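TA notes, week 10

Several of you asked for a full example with nothing omitted. So below is the full record: structure tokens for the whole chain, then the designed sequence directly under it. When grading your own attempts, check the secondary structure regions first.
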């Protein structure tokens, strides 16, 4: 009996039936996926940690609070380089494991491409991640984390400051009172033959009490657009000012709004009834230019608008038109489509517009908080912890992850086993995963398990390293469809899962016995005493712990088979960790699963294949 060697995963297998077509040196092609993106990046699942023998390097590209810098320095080399041009950033990034930015730095696709795979985490020291190309980050397996809470109050307070300042013309009146014309004259005194200067203040600052009569806030209707963290804090404060507050947010729970006395309304109702509109939604394709000519036309004449969210949610040209047409009486803006806006921007220069240079998060307290929040998230991610503020990966609470830990290992190993059972050239496209559990569906988060099965399926046959960030993307790139099903079991929901089953449809197998009655490659596993076990291959029940590697043999069920295989392995100094035999019926066919600590040599495997009752066998690396 001869065996073939698989170069990519060092699989060895032999099939008695087509013995003549196999040779020890031939390369057994592994299953192929449709054309896919390859990468030389070496990233481990969840563990995004940098090389063990050197400190990681963190590039801080915008000013960050001292406390955050100090936290970073305890763990990493910190390079604070501000005001880098896009080219300079792309050059530097290949030397960095992490990058920290605020809203002023574009983290474009080029940045990820230039990193050569070294960049593992981007920390956004603030909320909005619209300056980070999230798709590119995900495709490159780079985690993006933000600091979503530390500047909420600062932004809400700035919103209220702008609301009140606008209503009472504070900025305009201040500028007017300070404004004056200074005239400087230079003369020459002939008798003394000396030059002299005179300075006159003509047209002194104006005391314009009638011009700057404002409007009151009390009793007015404020529409908060986006009832998230900042929006709800603005609402709370506006209620304190005696305003009638309504909110529009398609995703906000009504009871949270009700709890602070705010009514959730439709977009059109908010537009039609508000005296003041305050914007607090993120900039997304759905919210871009959400205030435009059409929506301004729906507003009450004389409406006043505050924007501390993102400039792009307003069509700025349309706002100028609405101001000029008197639909919008005033606007107060902290954010702009392009920052800084052009100097001749009609909007910025408009007399009835109050502007600040994106100061929402700029308080001493918020910046210290943001710096600490982002430094902790970045250090945690570099250490391999799951970030609770991950933007492009599932956020799994630490306690859930601890509970799922052995199942995470089981999931990856089942994926690895299943894909190694596929015959070369078969093309893996349809994978079905079945979770059997006594837990209610919403009490079992399978996202991490799915990512690990995907990792197990892809890594043995490609150079791509799959992690929690890029698992779904990597599967999609390869045309791999992974469907999930849950079987609800009666019983105690104490452990999260009873078993995980991985089936690959429409493929042939190197090990015919792995094909189930329904025609798919099927492997099933369970966690026993915290250790993942393989419990089913095709229709055969086995029980072998998933440690080391596995030899699967199909043989005629007869006495002495375990001894024969065991002694071959023993003679060749291969330590057997576990053996289990599953059979359909006595003296018929049986599948033997043998756990081995070392990889047997080709000769050893050939000797196993030469045992007369062995019909087929496969060596699988875990
Ligand atoms: N100016 C600043 O310095 C500053 C500071 C902090 C936050 N921000 C910005 O403020 C915005 C809100 O921040 P946050 O922390 O409250 O975010 P958040 O995610 O807590 O809240 C955003 C809310 O907007 C809602 N939303 C999404 N799409 C919507 C739509 N089409 N219509 C209405 N609502 C929609 C979401 O459901 C969510 O409740 C973000 O754009 C953020 O970048 C600016
Ligand atoms: O999204 C945010 O957190 C704010 O816009 C603050 O941005 P900044 O960090 O650039 O001040």
């Amino acid at each position: 009996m001869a065996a073939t060697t698989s170069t990519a995963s060092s699989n060895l297998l032999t099939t008695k039936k087509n013995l003549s077509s196999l040779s020890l040196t031939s390369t057994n092609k592994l299953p192929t996926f449709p054309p896919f993106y390859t990468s030389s990046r070496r990233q481990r699942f969840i563990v995004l940690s940098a090389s063990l023998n050197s400190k990681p390097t963190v590039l801080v590209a915008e000013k960050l609070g001292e406390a955050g810098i100090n936290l970073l320095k305890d763990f990493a080399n910190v390079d604070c380089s501000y005001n880098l041009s896009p080219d300079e950033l792309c050059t530097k990034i290949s030397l960095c494991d992490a990058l920290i930015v605020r809203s002023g730095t574009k983290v474009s696709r080029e940045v990820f491409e230039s990193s050569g795979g070294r960049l593992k985490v981007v920390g956004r020291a603030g909320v909005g991640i619209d300056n980070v190309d999230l798709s590119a980050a995900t495709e490159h397996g780079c985690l993006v984390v933000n600091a979503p809470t530390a500047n909420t109050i600062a932004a809400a307070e700035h919103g209220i400051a702008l609301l009140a300042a606008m209503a009472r013309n504070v900025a305009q009146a201040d500028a007017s009172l300070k404004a004056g014309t200074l005239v400087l004259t230079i003369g020459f005194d002939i008798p003394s033959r000396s030059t002299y200067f005179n300075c006159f203040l003509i047209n002194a600052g104006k005391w314009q009490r009638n011009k700057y009569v404002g409007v009151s806030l009390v009793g007015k209707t404020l529409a908060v657009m986006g009832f998230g963290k900042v929006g709800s804090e603005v609402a709370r404060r506006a209620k304190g000012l005696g305003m009638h507050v309504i909110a529009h947010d398609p995703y906000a729970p009504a009871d949270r709004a009700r709890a602070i006395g705010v009514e959730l309304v439709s977009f059109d109702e908010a537009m039609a009834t508000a005296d003041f509109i305050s914007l607090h939604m993120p900039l997304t394709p759905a919210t871009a230019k959400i205030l435009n000519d059409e929506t301004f036309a729906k507003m009450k004449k004389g409406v006043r608008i505050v924007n501390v969210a993102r400039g792009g949610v307003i069509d700025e040209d349309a706002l100028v038109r609405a101001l000029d047409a008197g639909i919008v009486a005033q606007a107060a803006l902290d954010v702009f489509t392009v920052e800084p806006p052009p100097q001749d921007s009609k909007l910025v220069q408009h007399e009835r517009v109050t502007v600040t240079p994106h100061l929402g998060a700029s308080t001493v307290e918020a910046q210290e908080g943001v710096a600490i929040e982002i430094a902790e998230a970045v250090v945690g991610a570099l250490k391999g912890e799951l970030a609770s503020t991950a933007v492009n990966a599932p956020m799994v609470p630490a306690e859930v992850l601890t509970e799922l830990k052995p199942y995470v290992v089981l999931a990856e190993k089942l994926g690895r086993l299943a894909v190694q059972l596929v015959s070369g050239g078969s093309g893996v496209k349809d994978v079905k995963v079945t979770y059997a559990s006594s837990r209610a569906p919403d009490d079992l988060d399978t996202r991490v398990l799915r990512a690990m099965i995907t990792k197990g399926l892809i890594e043995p046959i490609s150079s791509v390293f799959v992690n929690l960030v890029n698992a779904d993307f990597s599967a999609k790139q390869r045309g791999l469809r992974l469907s999930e099903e849950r079987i609800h079991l009666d019983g105690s929901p104490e452990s999260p899962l009873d078993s995980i089953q991985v089936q690959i449809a429409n493929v042939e197998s190197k090990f015919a016995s792995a094909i189930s009655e329904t025609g798919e490659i099927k492997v099933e596993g369970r966690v026993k005493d915290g250790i993942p076990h393989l419990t089913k291959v095709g229709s055969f029940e086995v029980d072998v712990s998933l440690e080391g590697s596995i030899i699967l043999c199909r043989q005629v069920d007869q006495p002495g088979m375990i001894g024969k295989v065991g002694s071959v392995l023993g003679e060749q100094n291969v330590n057997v960790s576990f053996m289990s035999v599953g059979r359909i019926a006595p003296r018929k066919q049986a599948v033997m699963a043998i756990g081995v600590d070392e990889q047997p040599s080709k000769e050893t495997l050939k000797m196993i294949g030469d045992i007369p009752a062995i019909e087929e066998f496969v060596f699988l690396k875990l």
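The chain has a mean pLDDT of 87. Use that as a sanity check on your answer.
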